[in-house]
Design goal:
49% of the residues lie in helices and 9% in strands. By secondary structure, it is of the alpha+beta class.
Length: 672
């Protein structure tokens, strides 16, 4: 046998192609080999931007002594969690059941039936600081496999049983406004009054929760919701998690004060946060929000676009094996670039200290206060950015993940339309075309593939969140461009999800009914760092129903969101996207139809007002008279001119040609 990762479409797996470990990809062939050799399986799960994955690879997987132990006594499988989130989800549950905590790298030992009997995360090569050494673990588990096989398989069976017992959810009716108010109250109890955000260190960006809070602030004038959202959005934007020079957000902060990030930049975080900052700007007109939107969109187009027009998955935390090396500074480095006067000013402005705010005397750049001279800041920022570009850049995982591209399509389309940046909308359209051509087209049966690289589709089938988030992106494209092919495609994706992922009780599994079986068919409505597939489908169904008038999709969403009645109050931080969808349903959602000629300035003005609506989950369509699009059908011009029709539920207001009347009807800011 040989290491089999060199032809993988995953950059993470290809990073391990030269390891002396004889890695295989997840396959039936690998399990058959384990049966034939009568050895257990070692499953290593990680992703390309994971710092401790790199550390364990260097310490153990590149080491000949470790490789000899692994190759002789195990079949070694390397898995990219971003390509196979279904497998990652199953064995994360197992790791949590066995150890009480999880993370990556994930190290799981399996029997021939893929049942986990031992698990952990990072292991050093040899024992240190109270952590068991990887070589000692390999030797001990080999001995257990050979001498106490019955005990090993019994443990595996018990773990799977425990996982299945935990996979239950309390389902109820669609939550009421009281449930949403209680969720806000519960979030207040967990809100960090000093530093903003929720809970203590580490602090992850609560993107979906912030979306919910902004919606509730708009829907009910809940000042507590707006306070928590604005404080957190401000703290993240001014702290070290945000790249003050290049734009874009790191994955999380290791401290409670948003000072020191874990420097990897994930596409899903930046897509979700871009959209939240767009909605903050739309609701309040915040100049800080507009700044972050422009800088983050620029970052996405500059650093994350692939040659094919999609968006890459991540940027590494490490450079030359050192975490944060690309991003951190000393006072002397800044002064050397800028000179004494500007250098001293910038060091003070950006919170760079002689002791360092990070490690080894290095500081992470922050912008706690607005500069007293914006022109000077713009010049300084550009000089530092240009100088930083001469450093070795972090590696990029350039695979295209369907669901994450759906999220970025929605964000760029909305941001470009609202802030009049057609380049952003065009980038969203190109990414949408790529998903259709590469991820949807080759399957020939309306199925998505999960990933692609260099324009070549991967072999892993799409999971639930791919269908939900791509449908969400396509629905945004339809509303921004008026091209109803995007509306039709979103309906196709939702129909596949409903047909092949439904659990027949109103919920959804993460994998389709015809996927190769795992020890557990994963299912979880809870959000993680990105929306759960369950809530993503419900969210898209709400929008699709409002645009098409087909009530069956609304009913599907209402049934799916029944879990929010319990989960939304008990664990609102894990159900932000579901709470946001419920907020839209309770509000209507608002439906806005603009009928007019595309080259008419009056049509354009009404469209711009509609884009500024703050109503949760509001939908809109723009089209010529006589359109067959459901939201526009049988709605004529008024006195020969462009008109807006605003409805909520089954009640419509009188059509209007007056932009100020429309702004009042839809809750949009005007004249600012």
């Amino acid at each position: 046998m040989a290491n089999q990762l060199s032809n993988s479409t995953s950059p993470y797996l290809r990073q391990h192609a030269d390891n002396p470990v004889l890695w295989q990809e997840w396959s039936e062939a690998a399990f058959n080999e384990a049966r034939e050799r009568d050895v257990p399986i070692f499953l290593s799960i990680g992703y390309s931007a994971c710092h401790w994955c790199h550390v364990m690879a260097h310490e153990s997987f590149e080491d000949a002594e470790v490789a000899e132990l692994l190759n002789s006594n195990y079949v070694a499988i390397k898995l990219d969690r971003e390509e196979r989130p279904d497998i990652d989800s199953v064995y994360m549950q197992a790791t949590l059941a066995l150890t009480g905590h999880g993370g990556w790298p994930m190290s799981v030992f399996l029997d021939h039936d893929a049942q986990p009997f031992y698990a952990g995360t990072y292991f050093p090569k040899t024992s240190r600081n109270g952590m068991p050494g990887f070589m000692e673990i390999l030797s001990a588990l080999t001995q257990a496999w050979e001498e106490r096989r019955g005990d090993v398989t019994t443990v595996g069976g018990r773990v799977v049983d425990a996982m299945n017992e935990r996979a239950t959810f309390i389902r109820g009716d669609l939550p009421t406004s009281d449930v949403l108010a209680n969720a806000v109250t519960r979030l207040q109890m967990n809100f960090d009054e000093v530093h903003a955000g929720f809970g203590g260190a580490p602090k992850f960006p609560p993107s979906m929760v912030l979306e919910f809070l902004l919606r509730e602030a708009a829907r009910t004038d809940n000042l507590a919701a707006l306070f928590m959202a604005e404080r957190t959005l401000t703290a993240m934007a001014r702290g070290g998690m945000y790249d003050q020079l290049g734009g874009g957000f790191a994955r999380y902060c290791v401290d409670e004060s948003w000072t020191v990030p874990h420097f990897e930049k994930m596409l899903y975080d930046n897509a979700l946060l871009l959209r939240v900052y767009v909605h903050w700007y739309r609701l309040t007109g915040s100049e800080l929000a507009a700044k972050i939107v422009r800088e983050s969109a620029t970052f996405l187009l500059r650093e994350m676009r692939t040659p094919e027009g999609g968006f890459a998955s991540a940027l590494d935390a490490d450079t030359d094996g050192v975490e944060g090396k690309f991003y951190a500074w000393t006072p002397s480095e800044i002064t050397e670039v800028l000179g004494n006067a500007d250098g001293s000013w910038a060091v003070n402005l950006l919170g760079v200290t002689p002791e360092g705010t990070f490690e080894h005397g290095l500081s992470v750049l922050q912008l706690p206060d607005d500069p007293d001279d914006f022109d000077r800041w713009a010049k300084v920022r550009e000089q530092l950015f240009v100088h930083r570009a001469q450093r070795t850049a972090p590696g990029r995982d350039d695979k295209v993940v369907a669901s994450w591209n759906g999220l970025v399509i929605a964000a760029l389309a909305e941001a470009g339309a609202l802030l009049s940046e057609p380049e952003w909308v065009e980038a969203a359209l190109v990414a949408g075309d790529l998903l259709v051509a590469i991820h949807l087209g080759p399957t020939g049966d309306d199925r998505l593939c999960r990933t692609s690289r260099d324009g070549v589709p991967g072999k892993n089938v799409g999971v639930l969140d791919d269908y939900g988030s791509v449908a969400e992106g396509f629905l945004a494209l339809y509303q921004v461009t008026g091209d109803d092919s995007w509306l039709a495609l979103s309906g196709v994706l939702l129909d596949v999800a409903i047909s092949h992922f439904s659990d027949e009780q109103g919920g959804f599994f993460d994998t389709p009914d015809d996927a190769p079986p795992l020890v557990q068919r994963p299912q979880d409505p809870s959000d993680n760092a990105e929306p759960s597939g369950w809530f993503a489908i419900a969210h898209a169904c709400v929008t699709y129903s409002a645009l098409t008038g087909i009530q069956e999709y609304r009913q599907i969403a209402e049934r799916a969101l029944g879990v929010v009645a319990d989960l939304g109050v008990r664990a609102p931080r894990a159900s932000g996207w579901g709470l946001a969808a419920v907020s839209a349903l309770i509000d209507g959602p608002l439906e806005i139809a603009i009928v007019g000629r595309f080259d008419d300035s009056a049509t354009a003005l009404l469209r711009s007002i509609a884009l500024g609506t703050t109503a949760p989950g509001a939908v809109f369509a723009v089209g010529e008279p006589g359109s067959e699009v459901p939201l526009l059908r049988d709605r004529p011009l008024v006195d020969g001119g462009a008109a807006a029709y605003v409805c909520r539920g089954f009640t419509c207001q009188a059509p209007t040609t007056d932009p100020f009347v429309l702004a009042s009807q839809v809750g949009a800011r005007v004249g600012e």
